[in-house]
Amino acid sequence: MTDLTIHPIGERALTGSVPVPSDKSIGHRALLFSALCNGKSRVSGFSFSADNVSTADALRAMGVRIETTGKSELTVEGVGLHGLRAPDKVLDCGNSGTTMRLITGILAAQPFASKLVGDHSLMKRPMMRIVGPLRARGARIEGAPHPTRANDITAPLEIAGLREDEYLGPLEYESPVSSAQIKSAILLSGLFAHGATHFKEPSLSRDHTERLLSALGVPLRTVGTMVELDPAGWGGQMPALDIEIVGDISAAAFLLVAAQIVPGSRVVTRAVGTNPTRTGLLEILRDMGAGISVEAQGERAGEPIADIHAWTQPLRAGSIGGETVARAIDEIPIACALAARASGTTTIRDAEELRVKESDRIATMATVLRAFGVRCEELPDGLTIEGKEGPLEPADIDSRGDHRIAMTATVLGLLGRAPTKVRDVDCISTSFPRFVGTLRGLGATLDVT
Ligand code: S3P
C-alpha cells in the first residue's frame, strides 16, 4: 500500500502550465463503442487510467483485440454490434462503476451469459438503478442484496444470455436521478432492442454518449433532458472511430483549486474538455471569486476544449446546489477544499448522490476536513463548511480507497502547519496516474512511501 507525505508549501507557490490525463468518461465510451464498430479504430491522447484499463480488459475477455500502439495510443478491432464472444472469465471491473454499469447495458442484450465483479468499493455500489430498467425491457440480471440499501442490489451481477427467441423490447424510462451511467447503460441496451428507447432525467447529466453515438450515425434525438434512440430503419453498423481524447476537467479540477488556495499561484491546465455538462466547477469557482479564465481552443472529437488559467484570488463562501451539482458531481470533494479557504460558511446541498460514489463522499469529506481543523457539518444531501484562515492542522488521512478523496487531501496538505500523511493512495491511478509528478512539476514537495 502506498502512502504520500505532503510537505507544507510555505512561502512557495504553484506555477506552471501542464497537460492533464485524458477524460476518463470519454475513454470508456471510446473503447466500448469502438469495440461495437466495424473496422479498426484508433484512440489517441489516452492516459491508461486504471478505470479505463478495466474497460479494455473486459472487452479483451470478450474477444476484442485492443493493442497499445504508442505511449498514449491504442487500436481497437471492432467486432460489430453482434460480434462479442462469451467472456472467457468473470469480468472484473476493478474500481470502475462506469465499466460495470455501461457494460451491463451491452451484456443484457447478448446471447451468452456473463458475470461482473469489482473491488471492495464497487461491490457495495447500488446497481438496481440500471438493473431495474433493463429488466423492464426483458433483461435477466441478478445481483446480491445490497448490505445497507433496502430493495437495492449490488455486484456480483449475473446476466443470463438471451435465448434465440428472446430480445429486448422498447423502453420508456424516467430516472429519478441525473446519471450518465444510467442513461448510457439504457441507451447501449437500446442499440440491440426491438423498439425505441426513451430516457428522461431530472437535469442533464454528461452527454458524451449522445455526442459520440450520434457521430457514429446512431439515430439519437435529444430534447432537453429527454433522449430517444429509435433503431427502426437503422442498419446497425457503426464505422470505425479515430478519436483523440480531450483532457479531463475532473482531473484539472484539483490543480485549478490548488492554484486558488496556495497563495501566489498561477497554473494553466491545457486542452481540457469544457463540455457544458461537465463545467459546474468553473461556475462554482467564479461564484466564489476565484481567479479563472477559460481560453477556448476549438473542438476535439465533437467536444469543446480550452486552456484554463487559474490564479490565487481572495475567496468568498458559496452556495452550491441545484442542477450545478450534476455538472460538478465528481468535483464536489475538491470544491470542499475551496470552501475550506473561503471567507464565511459555504453550503453544499442536493448532492445526496455523493453518498454512493467510490466512498460516501459526504461522510468522508467531513472526516477529512475535521482532520485539517476545518469546521463542518454533515447534511443528508451535502455539507456546511466554515472557511479557515492560516495554516491547517497536519492531518493523517485514510483515503478509504477513493481517488478523489486522496487527491483532495493531498491538495489541502500543501497548507499544513507540518507534513500531512495521506494513506492508501494507489487509488489515484484510477483517474490521474501522473498526479504526484504533476504537482511536483508545479512546485510541491511530496514523498511517496
Ligand atoms: C460517469 C458518470 C458519473 C460520474 C462518474 C463517471 C460516466 O456517475 O460520477 O465518475 O462516465 O458516465 P453517475 O452517472 O452515476 O452520476
TrEMBL record:
A matching Pfam family: EPSP_synthase
Pathway(s) where this gene product acts: Metabolic intermediate biosynthesis; chorismate biosynthesis; chorismate from D-erythrose 4-phosphate and phosphoenolpyruvate: step 6/7
PROSITE patterns (UniProt xref): EPSP_SYNTHASE_1, EPSP_SYNTHASE_2
Keyword presence, Cytoplasm: yes
List of residues binding 3-phosphoshikimate: 24-25, 29, 179, 181, 330, 357
Class of the enzyme per the UniProt entry, highest EC level: transferase
CDD domains: EPSP_synthase
A GO MF label: 3-phosphoshikimate 1-carboxyvinyltransferase activity
Active site: 330
Record localization: Cytoplasm
InterPro entries linked to this entry: Enolpyruvate_Tfrase_dom (IPR001986), Enolpyruvate_Tfrase_sf (IPR036968), EPSP_synthase (IPR006264), EPSP_synthase_CS (IPR023193), RNA3'P_cycl/enolpyr_Trfase_a/b (IPR013792)
Residues where phosphoenolpyruvate binds: 24, 97, 125, 181, 361, 404
E.C. code: 2.5.1.19
Keywords for this protein: Amino-acid biosynthesis, Aromatic amino acid biosynthesis, Cytoplasm, Transferase
Iron listed as a keyword: no
Main location: cytoplasm
Domain Enolpyruvate transferase intervals: 12-439
SUPFAM superfamilies, alphabetized: EPT/RTPC-like
Subunit: Monomer.
Protein family per UniProt: Belongs to the EPSP synthase family.
UniProt function note: Catalyzes the transfer of the enolpyruvyl moiety of phosphoenolpyruvate (PEP) to the 5-hydroxyl of shikimate-3-phosphate (S3P) to produce enolpyruvyl shikimate-3-phosphate and inorganic phosphate.
Protein name stated in the entry: 3-phosphoshikimate 1-carboxyvinyltransferase
Organism: Pendulispora albinea
